Amino acid sequence: MQDSWTTSVAQHGPRRDALETALRSAIRDGRLAPGSRLPSTRALALDLGIARGTVVEAYAQLRAEGYLGARRGAGTWVADLGLSIAPSVPRARPAAPSPRFDFHPGQPDLSAFPRAAWAAALRRGLRAAADSTLGYGDPRGRPELREELALYLTRARGAVADPERVVLCCGFRHGLSLVGRALRTERATRMAIEEPCAPPHRAAAAASGLRLVPLAVDERGARTDLLGELRADAVVLGPAHQYPLGVVLQPDRRAAAVEWARATGGVIVEDDYDAELRYDRQPVGALQALAPEHVAYGGTASKTLVPGLRLGWLLLPPRLLEPVLALREVEDVHVPATDQIAFTELLRSGAYERHVRRMRTRYRARRVRLVRMLAERVPAVTPEGAAAGLRVLLDLPGSGPTARELCELASERSLALYEVAGRNAVLVGYGALPEYDAEAGLRALTDLLATVYAS
Amino acid sequence: MQDSWTTSVAQHGPRRDALETALRSAIRDGRLAPGSRLPSTRALALDLGIARGTVVEAYAQLRAEGYLGARRGAGTWVADLGLSIAPSVPRARPAAPSPRFDFHPGQPDLSAFPRAAWAAALRRGLRAAADSTLGYGDPRGRPELREELALYLTRARGAVADPERVVLCCGFRHGLSLVGRALRTERATRMAIEEPCAPPHRAAAAASGLRLVPLAVDERGARTDLLGELRADAVVLGPAHQYPLGVVLQPDRRAAAVEWARATGGVIVEDDYDAELRYDRQPVGALQALAPEHVAYGGTASKTLVPGLRLGWLLLPPRLLEPVLALREVEDVHVPATDQIAFTELLRSGAYERHVRRMRTRYRARRVRLVRMLAERVPAVTPEGAAAGLRVLLDLPGSGPTARELCELASERSLALYEVAGRNAVLVGYGALPEYDAEAGLRALTDLLATVYAS
What we know:
The structure is a homodimer of 455-residue chains. Chain A has 455 residues and is α/β, with parallel strands linked by helices. Chain A has 15 helices and 16 strands.
């Protein structure tokens, strides 16, 4: 038995580290059984041809760690760790092969992330940053970044943005969770949420402890005219581009939401996730500007840059600021200094807005192309929603396959499409394709649809 | 009234953006009162000397945003936004001037962050990373990083580390919160926690909904021999270097903790926050290795690199893996792809461990220097705790000022020291000083103590 681990020591070279490592793993593997006596330090040192002091130190280390027991006069033995051989966690199922074209409705073109610019911004920003930037900082985020974001939100989204009210977070869903939990501590109990909406948003809102009340959405946006009847303390709205339906909240509906908030003291959580991406006109300004005291505004870089950054921001009404910050102190979840530094640089230099403009042009071209191809080749399928964002909703004719069946047919051709709950429609995320493959992807999609809906 | 905003338009130049911006802010500021009629598009275009189409578009935009109302034949008027002038959030109180020497007990030397190496690692890693790395990814973290971390934890901490069980998080406190909430979903109700401990840890554990039970700590570490009496479902331990007392959990206490976990099915949350920094001997290996099925191990880069990274990791027993991942799906809080990419590179290249070794040498020198200066000049004050980490605990003689009084005296000399709850002692974080100022800081501290305790 001794052989097996002394051999291993010899292989690793006669050093204390190697001896300890070999002993630990021999004990854990059961090659050295609990209770077995170890050779004396002198004998082992002779066997291995190493200094006795090395063995003494190794034994002492393993005693401190609990692998060995020892008593003067009784020598050194293997402690009973009571280890059963640990069954490994079942490996994740082998992932299904990625589809050739994934039309994920919530994902931007990952290949377009400005990698070199981001790395350069970080290098430049880190060189100039004060040491204190790297410590535990303001739970809202770095002042420099909040300043830049406030300017950006004023400029690009028409928001009433005070840097003191900006709070960095890890994306819209995290922001929604923070606001939901803050509302709970302020005794709110009911939150209205658009139906349909993004299921993870519903889960995040529900996890904050609020009772969710569905709010219908029609072609003019959420039915904010019905808010008064719902007795909700808050409502989640996507005014600029509702997910998944793609409708824009119309002026009277915007007014109704604001009136409701003002009359009842209710809070509007504005999901402004992709408002920068509007193709047929200038983006509609943020609802927040109409009622800064009542709107908790949330934005994100997940669509304009990439979701992997986990970078988002809230612009909060004063009464929610303290409760949100109290939660952040406890959960201790913040945006890393590194990404804050890089993003500050990109905002300050204008590179972020240039990137957004470039992507807008690119996504617009894809959308126009898709809509045109559909009109020519698959007139039975109707694109719905505003000319905006990363996706289009396609209403399917009743005569053909169901949305689920269509997704399965697509999957056979290695295309991933996405169903819409409660409607015979699919979401096509043209934004998710890498630019070099966009045309091929749109062709593959229209080929499929043309085959399915050939009349 | 019209003048004031048309002037502003002229200043911004006769473009549609400028017109919209001027209108929005005039309406918000109350310069254009609710109900006031706007000039016709034709009249305004003539006044401003711009194309009528521009005015039409601007009015349409502001109607869409809810600032204006319009009806065919009735013209265009300012909508009633019901805005009261929003009181701004009270600015944060002006921060107290930073102390000349801040001996923060939990902070490393921020000036030592390897900025250039980090930025270079990000650039290199980003260049090679697959696009999918930048999307929504595995909620545990990138496989490459979990692989490197598992190797590191095996090598440096003697842990039994399977990459499948590694979960990235935003620091130890976030990890503790995740484990606490996961335990709640598994019907755990009581968690033992060392007393004293870091107050934010207590807050995070309590916020997870567990009832906290204090566990005493003596000079041999936490009283794990008493765990059986506490009827706890879990216990938080800092075996390698207890915070704030600095004691190391002794072999029999390690054994008692493991026996308790095995006998009761209890979970040990191992806080391994600074174990890499041991100065008098090799670090004691992780407790996790003795009972991988019962220990939720947590580590962090907050002490070895900087807290601003918000980078930590859990190594979980199989039964906690699914519940923790379910929580992460909902809260949607993850470590950004960027930091994961850079950290993977630093681990892979060995640069991380070289950095840790460099910092260990540096902090050891500071500690040795401080202890020697105290022995020579202030023998009345007793340094306590293992030769490890970023801080030392100083027990104060009963005859002099209290710990609070000493902190105030220090503050007068622009030194920040930190009290220990329930003990006449202060924490001195020698690690927090920037290297160029470390000697001066230690001198200023011993000067103060020598004056106070001159006999």
